[in-house]
Design brief:
Blueprint lengths: L1 E6 L4 H13 L3 E6 L2 H7 L9 E4 L5 H8 L7 E4 L5 H11 L6 H8 L1 H10 L7 E4 L6 H4 L6 E5 L9 E3 L2 H14 L5 E5 L5 E9 L2 E12 L7 E7 L5 H11 L4 E10 L2 E8 L7 H8 L4 H9 L15 E8 L4 E5 L4 E2 L3 E5 L6 E2 L8 E9 L2 H14 L3 E3 L1
Parallel strand pairs: 1-2, 1-4, 2-3
Antiparallel strand pairs: 5-8, 6-7, 6-8, 9-10, 9-12, 10-11, 11-14, 12-13, 14-19, 15-18, 15-20, 16-17, 17-19
């Protein structure tokens, strides 16, 4: 069997999750990407490397279909990229293969469309004001409640997301983001205060089920950088989130949803219609009593993966990141560590130049820890941070 994988840059999810899973399932992987050299370097010497890597303008579904048509018909089209979900959905639909609804991938990618759709369905209304690329900020500055949140309509990784306190600050932040993202639409919306959670789901054509989730700790405002994720086998508010996901058309494959719990209301922050990233998926794969990445690929092959799952591992788990606190050159950092219960992976090498962005791009390394109880996890995490240091020189 053959699977087409669409990709932009190489990611840990694909390199350490989906490619090994495809290898275990006996799938022949054809990877289409606009950056073939980076992928060839990432998989060099690996037994689970794609059978072939082809250059393709993957953001253009016509180019994807042209490449697909040059070989035998595949059994699945898949991507784990935020930016390529609609292209993969359209290609799968054209070929008559299992795939996500392109309308759902579009709604979830574009936060303004997501807000509007949920409001139109009468499910939940988050006050939000789209701001076109050339639209004056004064058009919304007097209408929004403060504090409010400014974000790119199709952004990822907390990039250019700010908590804004007044109309003057809103105008300054909009000007800043527009310099970085000329021509990109923005969104201004009410600030959703409360505990932040994630819900991780898996679906096939037969339905959708919950795998678990995380309690998220963010950096101090005005930025929204994820600093810590604590595993939750049972997620509060899950049923209310599932109702909203179904209304958006989410179903097939993995979905990572961020939401704030406000009493009886689950308020969606964003929906990423792919598996959770930043190595949280690798932590989940260690904890679930099922092969996570294989299940996701099997769903895209048309299999039913919604059967009741065996009981999850009772261990507690956490993931934390070492964050840059200044720009400069990384001159000191710990090496990779893996002793089973604790794993640390550098995301930047000594000698790398680091630019401070106040986003997930500032991660220097990622720590994954699991244990039989919270005390064991807390102790291991505290000891790790005490025993290691990171130094950035100007």
């Amino acid at each position: 069997m053959r699977i087409i994988v669409l990709a932009g840059k190489p990611t840990d999810s694909v390199t350490h999750g989906f490619l090994p899973a495809a290898h275990r399932l006996g799938l022949r992987v054809t990877l289409l990407t606009d950056r073939p050299g980076r992928h060839e370097a990432a998989y060099a010497g690996r037994p689970d490397a794609p059978a072939e890597i082809r250059r393709c303008e993957v953001f253009d579904v016509r180019a994807v279909l042209d490449q697909v048509g040059r070989a035998d018909r595949p059994d699945a089209v898949f991507t784990n990229s935020d930016h390529l979900q609609t292209q993969a959905a359209l290609a799968a639909a054209y070929l008559g293969l299992p795939g996500k609804d392109w309308r759902a991938t579009t709604r979830t990618k574009n936060k303004a469309l997501m807000r509007r759709h949920l409001a139109d369905q009468g499910i939940d209304t988050v006050r939000a004001w789209p701001l076109g690329a050339d639209e004056p900020v004064q058009a919304v500055a007097s209408a929004v409640p403060y504090p409010c949140v400014l974000k790119p309509a199709e952004g990822v990784a907390s990039e250019d997301v700010f908590l804004v306190g007044d109309p003057g600050e809103l105008a300054e932040r909009v000007a800043l983001v527009r310099r970085r993202r000329p021509g990109h639409p923005l969104l201004v919306e009410e600030y959703l205060d409360g505990p932040l959670y994630t819900l991780e789901t898996l679906g096939s054509e037969c339905g959708m089920r919950v795998l678990g989730g995380f309690r998220t700790q963010l950096s101090a405002p005005p930025h929204f950088v994820e600093e810590r994720m604590s595993w939750l086998p049972a997620v509060p508010g899950a049923a209310r989130v599932l109702r909203q996901l179904r209304a958006l058309g989410v179903g097939l494959g993995a979905c990572h949803t961020e939401f704030v719990l406000q009493g009886e209301r689950a308020r969606l922050v964003e929906v990423n219609y792919r598996v959770i990233g930043d190595q949280c998926d690798l932590l989940m794969a260690d904890l679930l009593a099922e092969p996570l990445f294989e299940l996701i690929l099997r769903a895209h092959l048309g299999e039913d993966v919604t059967a009741p799952a065996p009981a999850n591992d009772p261990r507690q788990a956490r993931i934390e990141w070492a964050l840059a606190d200044r720009a400069g050159v990384l001159i000191c950092a710990p090496p990779a560590i893996d002793d089973g219960a604790l794993a640390y992976r550098p995301l930047r090498a000594v000698g790398d130049r680091v630019a401070l962005t106040r986003t997930n791009r500032d991660y220097l390394g990622v720590l994954r820890v699991h244990g039989p109880d919270n005390h064991t996890v807390d102790t291991a995490v505290t000891r790790f941070w005490a025993d290691h240091s990171w130094e950035i020189a100007p």
